[in-house]
Design goal:
The protein is mostly helical and about 325 residues long. It is about 70% helix and about 5% strand. The chain has one domain. Strand 1 and strand 2 form a beta hairpin.
């Protein structure tokens, strides 16, 4: 069940630890499962869309079953053990500090004038080609990826942890990992990854819109423009090719007074996205730092709302001891 203490501890662990390399992450095991299932399904199921649906069901089902078994086993040992395992699992669903840390490495290289290192670092956290990007385009990519990942790496997991506890949180993580591995529109995955991509769109539908609302609320708290955030969200949220990403990006663009979108290159192919926002301010370190403030403010507001909601649903009984 969703537990306010679990959510609070998970967020504190995320802010304190991020994603340390020494700590085994569930996404690694989910990714290995997806790779093995893909090979088996491609060899045994002729219809790629059918194979993709089976991949989605088996991956999410196995992830939820393993999570349930781990929680159940820990709970049998002691209720406190169950609580701590639930908090750890929930912590692995969040990406606040790691998003800051990875993007900050790019920003640090740019500020130091090492555009080559910035391009390499950026390639670790975005899907677009980074080898030829100039400084403003790198700042744009940073702002866009922090805005998008605030939605699907922080707000969405918090939302699903509130709806269904660690089981729902890990189900979302499995769907997100599937989308990142097979949810492409290229020849190999257009049909095979269709179900995973559509399920990811569905799982992020509410969180993406919540993120835009949170960014609007956060704007005046972070010395940014609430009027701009509201105006650009209403005007530009549907311009993005993704049904979800445009909402947080439009809100961020309006709050920061920058223009996002334009040409990006993926696998050597140029992709044109409609512009979002107005170029009132430059895309630079100041815009990136403003985006980080929006990310943290949105996270804290969302976490507070989740804790209050689960407290209300759970009553005064918080710790399972």
């Amino acid at each position: 069940m969703p537990d306010p203490a679990v959510i609070a501890l998970a967020l504190l662990l995320d802010l304190a630890l991020g994603d340390p390399r020494w700590l085994p992450h569930p996404v690694i095991f989910i990714g290995r499962l997806i790779n093995r299932l893909e090979k088996w399904l491609r060899n045994n199921v002729r219809q790629e869309r059918v194979a993709g649906v089976i991949l989605l069901i088996m991956t999410v089902g196995a992830t939820v079953a393993a999570t349930w078994l781990l929680l159940r086993s820990a709970g049998y040992l002691h209720p406190l053990a169950g609580f701590l395992v639930a908090a750890f699992i929930s912590f692995t669903c969040l990406a606040t500090r790691s998003l800051h840390a990875e993007s900050a490495l790019v920003a640090k290289a740019l500020v130091a004038g090492d555009i080559g290192a910035a391009r390499v670092r950026l390639s670790y956290i975005v899907g677009r080609d980074t080898g030829q990007l100039d400084e403003p385009e790198i700042w744009r990519a940073l702002v866009e990826t922090v805005a998008e990942n605030t939605a699907d790496g922080i707000i969405a997991p918090l939302f699903w942890l509130t709806v269904g506890g660690p089981l729902a949180g890990m189900a979302f993580k499995a769907i997100s990992t599937l989308d990142s591995m097979v949810g492409y529109k290229n020849e190999r995955y257009r049909d095979f990854g269709w179900a995973s991509a559509r399920m990811d769109d569905l799982a992020n539908f509410i969180p993406a819109r919540l993120t835009a609302l949170l960014v609007i609320i956060s704007a005046p708290l972070t010395a940014l423009s609430v009027q701009g955030a509201l105006k650009i969200t209403l005007r530009d949220r549907r311009k993005h090719p993704s049904p979800n990403s445009g909402h947080p990006e439009a809100a961020a663009a309006g709050a920061l007074g920058v223009r996002l979108g334009g040409a990006s290159c993926y696998g050597g192919r140029v992709s044109l996205k409609e512009f979002s926002g107005d170029p009132v301010a430059a895309l630079d370190e100041r815009a990136y730092q403003g985006m980080l403030r929006l990310m943290y403010a949105s996270t804290l507001i969302m976490a507070s709302a989740c804790i209050v909601t689960t407290l209300y649903l759970k009553g005064s009984h918080v710790l399972p001891i």
